[in-house]
């Protein structure tokens, strides 16, 4: 059910800092026309850390109302009660699944990690996708823990952004008998992750070049490695440029460059340096033909 390309969409703001609802709906239409499998609002790329609870819920509701493809709502928190509340809201709003980041800052032990996700899973019937990104959270979701969580009926997959190919390989190996998918959480590693058995990507690059990313992932799903490899290298400069600074600073900047709604960042994020913005624009302009 959850495979292919799912852009981790930005949250556009107006110049006064308020949510740009009309612009967000337009962006969602753009992704639907590009052939993606779904969208992921309210993730890290959507500046979820600086959204109020009311805004977070509003963004999910707009996504569900506007999207022609699946909506995987970011509902994670380092507060289990908050994660439960946001996940139940996403289910009530009509989302197709929820994306749950590991509890950041708290750094729970393995039993605490398992209990956190199990509590959220038992609070709803919504399919849940785990999200492992140690560089942002300070904690790694171990393959053994993932394998145990995969046995929970509505835990259906993981967005893996550890950057460790051996770890990702081990997760796929340990969950092969479960109804469980591994999705890349790192655009640079999508091709090798899919070569190991991953089923797609929750993508930052797809915010800017969704059609090309869809073609690459479809090629991998069909076993056409030569085509996938060619597109991978076409998109590689963009994948690097979108991480010149902390995500989502570059991708929100690039989204505005291609004419989508973007607007300002929210503090504590600040605009890119002039030098990096120039490098980003050169890359986006050069790859225009591939979008």
Classify the fold: give the CATH topology.
TIM Barrel
In terms of quaternary structure, the protein is single chain
Q: What is the CATH superfamily label?
A: Aldolase class I
Largest sheet descriptor: 8 strands, parallel
**Helix content percent band:** 40-55%
Name the poorly predicted regions: none
Overall geometry: globular
Number of helices: 12
Q: End-to-end span in angstroms?
A: 25 Å
CATH second-level architecture: Alpha-Beta Barrel
- How many domains make up the 3D coordinates? 1
Strand percentage? 5-15%
How confident overall, as mean pLDDT? 96
Rg, please?
A: 18 Å
SS elements, strand count: 8
Q: Briefly, what CATH class?
A: Alpha Beta
Can you characterise this structure?
There is one protein chain. The chain has 291 residues and is an alpha/beta fold. It has one domain (4-290): Aldolase class I (TIM Barrel, Alpha-Beta Barrel), CATH 3.20.20. The chain is built from twelve helices and eight strands. It has helices spanning 21-33, 53-66, 80-93, 110-122, 134-137, 143-149, 165-174, 190-196, 210-221, 225-241, 249-257, 274-286, and strands spanning 4-7, 38-39, 70-74, 97-101, 128-132, 155-160, 181-184, 200-203. An eight-stranded parallel sheet has the order 1-8-7-6-5-4-3-2. Strand 6, helix 7 and strand 7 (181-184) form a beta-alpha-beta unit. Helix 6 (143-149) runs parallel beside helix 7, helix 8 runs parallel beside helix 9 and helix 9 runs antiparallel to helix 10 (225-241). It is globular. It starts with a strand and ends in a 5-residue tail after the last helix. The model has no long low-confidence stretch (mean pLDDT 96).
């Amino acid at each position: 059910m959850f495979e292919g390309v799912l852009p981790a969409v930005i949250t556009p703001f107006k110049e006064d800092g308020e949510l740009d609802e009309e612009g967000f709906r337009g962006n969602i239409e753009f992704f639907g026309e590009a052939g993606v499998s779904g969208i992921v609002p309210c993730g890290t790329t959507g500046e979820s850390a600086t959204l109020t609870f009311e805004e977070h819920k509003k963004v999910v509701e707009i996504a569900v109302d506007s999207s022609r493809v699946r909506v995987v709502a970011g509902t994670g928190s380092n507060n289990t009660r908050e994660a439960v509340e946001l996940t139940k809201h996403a289910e009530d709003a009509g989302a197709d699944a929820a994306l749950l980041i590991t509890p950041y800052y708290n750094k729970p032990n393995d039993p605490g990690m398992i209990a956190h996700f199990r509590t959220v899973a038992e609070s709803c019937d919504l399919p849940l996708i785990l999200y492992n990104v140690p560089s942002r959270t300070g904690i790694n979701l171990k393959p053994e823990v993932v394998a145990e969580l995969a046995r929970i009926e509505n835990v259906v997959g993981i967005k893996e952004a550890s950057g460790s190919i051996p770890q990702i390989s081990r997760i796929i190996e340990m969950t092969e008998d479960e109804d469980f998918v591994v999705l890349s959480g790192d655009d640079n590693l999508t091709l090798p992750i899919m070569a190991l058995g991953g089923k797609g990507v929750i993508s930052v690059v797809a915010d800017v070049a969704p059609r090309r990313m869809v073609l690459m992932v479809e090629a991998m799903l069909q076993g056409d490695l030569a085509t996938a490899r060619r597109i991978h290298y076409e998109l590689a400069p963009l994948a690097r440029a979108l991480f010149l600074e902390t995500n989502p600073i570059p991708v929100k900047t690039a989204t505005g460059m291609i004419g989508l709604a973007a607007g300002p960042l929210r503090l504590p994020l600040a605009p890119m340096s002039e030098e990096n913005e120039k490098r980003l624009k050169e890359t986006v302009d050069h790859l225009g033909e591939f979008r």
